[in-house]
Amino acid sequence: MEAKQHGMGIIMTLLLLATLFFSGARAAAHDQATPVLHPVILVPGYSCSQFDARLIGEYEPPTPACGVPKQGREWFRLWENYTELQENPTLLPCYQDQLRLVYDHAAGDYCNVPGVETRVVSFGTTRSFVFDDPVQKNVCMARLVEALEGVGYKEGSNLFGAPYDFRYAPAAPNVAARAFAGFRSRLTRLIERASEMNGKKPVIIVTHSFGGDYAMEFLNRSPLPWRRSYVKHFVMLCGVIGGTPLMMEVVASTMGSSPAPTTLLGSVLSLGNRSFESMYNFLPSPVVYGDTPLVITRAKNYSAENMPEFLTAVGFSGEEIARYRTRALPLTLNFRAPLVPMTCINGIGVPTTYGLVYWDGNFTEKPQVVNGDGDGGVTLENVLAMKRLVGGDPAQPYFKSVLVPNTTHSGMISDDSALRVVVNEILKANQATS
Ligand SMILES: *[C@@H]1O[C@H](CO)[C@@H](O)[C@H](O)[C@H]1NC(C)=O
Ligand SMILES: *[C@@H]1O[C@H](CO)[C@@H](O)[C@H](O)[C@H]1NC(C)=O
Ligand SMILES: *[C@@H]1O[C@H](CO)[C@@H](O)[C@H](O)[C@H]1NC(C)=O
Ligand SMILES: *[C@@H]1O[C@H](CO)[C@@H](O)[C@H](O)[C@H]1NC(C)=O
Ligand SMILES: *[C@@H]1O[C@H](CO)[C@@H](O)[C@H](O)[C@H]1NC(C)=O
């Protein structure tokens, strides 16, 4: 009975939202002649940006099928060139090798493999959010772009995209992070240009998943007066700041002899042979998960506070763990309000990994999973931590958390009902007078 009433409540809410959405859509269509909309900048999730590569002389190919003699010196699509890999599977080891990152000790930073240059495709636009790979179809923001176009947004006029090389990550302020610094300056210029083109209206930043980490750190590092004059609102969908226990399973599933990972994140990490800097940013933060045991074995438990020991147990080197400590951990410990109006939208009601039991301590086995609430990737604890640490900061001007029932991490940007909620919140952010 209670469940049924709850269900009815959800239906009523959805109907109400649908009504709001359609009236919002009409209003926007009606006003299209006058530029009422604030420009929107979309920052997509993990694996949703494309990048090209080109090889130069010093590149040492892993097999004779690749390298300068075979692949040439011209730019080609490295991520993601699904069609090419279907047609020419012998290129897979080449792409895997070229996708890797290495750590440059002299520069104190991650970089491409020597002899490989990369560049993000179509920065400023949303064109690169569309993939020919069926696995990526509903994971990226292509359907959100359509939904925004449905309410009067127009690519290149008031709708823009900020793709980034997701192998790299935002890092603590005191370490070198060239890729992230490059993203920050490109995004700054994009936001200034978008605002200029739209009668100096400040922009609305809309992120999905890992895009939220990029945008949050971008905002925190931008001067406060700049933020206040250029950013009207930050709409964060399924933000993963604070990490997720699911990542511990993903990391274990990519250990040497493990069976092939079943998650998209796992396959991407395996593809890069666990060399991507960004993987450490997804590990659960002590600020959110404290000392709750997240991984349980007969002999020892691991909480977010024991992450270095867990990483050792699943095969990371001391050097890699030191980089987790100096680059990623300080960010996940230092949750901060962005000090611009913010709306967080999260899915709930989907079983979400909260704990993992590897009773015999064998991390290459499939664990017994203990589920909590969330969107299947991001837990409700993460949502509550955002409310507490960002919403609860007296300096934060406006903060709202919207929970969308029965919505998965990717469903947030692909289910019609969730998209209505998202677009409606973006329209509301447009109207807010603060
Ligand atoms: C994929 O790679 C091939 C070979 O390098 C290239 O010809 C093709 O244009 C690439 N696809 C895209 C979408 O760039
Ligand atoms: C993957 O990384 C491990 C550890 O860094 C290394 O020993 C191994 O050779 C790498 N494999 C490939 C195919 O690059
Ligand atoms: C691990 O955590 C579980 C659940 O909280 C607890 O019952 C168990 O005693 C802990 N085991 C060890 C070895 O600390
Ligand atoms: C761990 O589990 C894997 C997969 O079930 C198995 O192949 C391997 O032998 C196990 N290792 C140990 C040390 O028991
Ligand atoms: C949740 O969503 C699934 C798939 O869209 C649907 O089959 C199911 O009935 C929904 N459950 C509730 C409680 O709304």
TrEMBL record:
Q: Does the keyword Metal-binding apply?
A: no
Classify the source by domain of life.
Answer: Eukaryota
Q: Name one GO biological process term.
A: lipid metabolic process
InterPro entries listed in its UniProt record: AB_hydrolase_fold, LACT/PDAT_acylTrfase
Which keywords accompany this UniProt record? Signal
User: Secretion signal: which residues?
Assistant: 1-27
Q: Which Pfam families match?
A: LCAT (PF02450)
For this UniProt entry, the molecular function terms from Gene Ontology, in alphabetical order, are: O-acyltransferase activity
Q: What is the official name of this protein in its record?
A: Lecithin-cholesterol acyltransferase-like 1
Organism equals Digitaria exilis
